[in-house]
């Protein structure tokens, strides 16, 4: 087990970071070139003011019509994404790793808050899965990969929660925690998780088109 731990926490972790960074750059460059080739208006109509205005409105809960029409989905979505970002970046154990590996002092959240946010992520994944099963309009658009992505996202949080509380078998679960986190990191540029890389660009373009061309709001 010690050999597996050294491999997962060492070479495999660095490989995951390299794949994430390299894949992200490749994805962004490829999407930028594709947009320029197939739809040059993406650049012609881009307006930073309207783009930021749109991004700001869609980043605030209930600030848009769609957010207000779906209050439960809105609350779950915002709680999910906030927790999904804060826990991996600002967990105390992860902050210690930043200090150990890069000698960077990193701010961290209390462990109790991290537990609450972890439960929010897991509960949100269950909500999203149930929504895909129970709502006919969403179920129609759902494929197996959608459920696999939810499982992939939930796995690092579930295993991390288990390992932190030292439940039976936590040593092996801790290895699974690192492994599942590395899988998510490496998969981001090549799955639907890649929306985290270009969501702001997409929203910015929509805001630019509505504001500068249609002279209307997109919220």
In short:
By secondary structure, this protein is mainly α.
What does this structure look like?
With 219 residues, this protein is mainly alpha-helical. It has a single domain, classed as Fumarate Reductase Cytochrome B subunit (Up-down Bundle). The chain contains 12 helices and no strands. Helix 6 packs across helix 8, helix 8 runs antiparallel to helix 10 and helix 10 packs across helix 11. It starts with a helix and ends in a 6-residue tail after the last helix.
Write down the domain tally.
1
- What structural category do the secondary elements indicate? mainly alpha
Instruction: Please report the number of helical segments.
Output: 12
Largest sheet: none
Strand content: under 5%
Q: What's the order of the H and E elements?
A: HHHHHHHHHHHH
Whole-Å distance between the termini?
A: 53 Å
Mean pLDDT: 91
Molecular shape: globular
Percentage of residues assigned to helices? over 70%
According to DSSP, the number of beta strands is: 0
CATH topology tier name: Fumarate Reductase Cytochrome B subunit
Q: Indicate the low-confidence ranges by residue numbers.
A: none
Q: For the CA atoms, what is the radius of gyration?
A: 20 Å
CATH class wording: Mainly Alpha
Tell me what the CATH architecture is.
Up-down Bundle
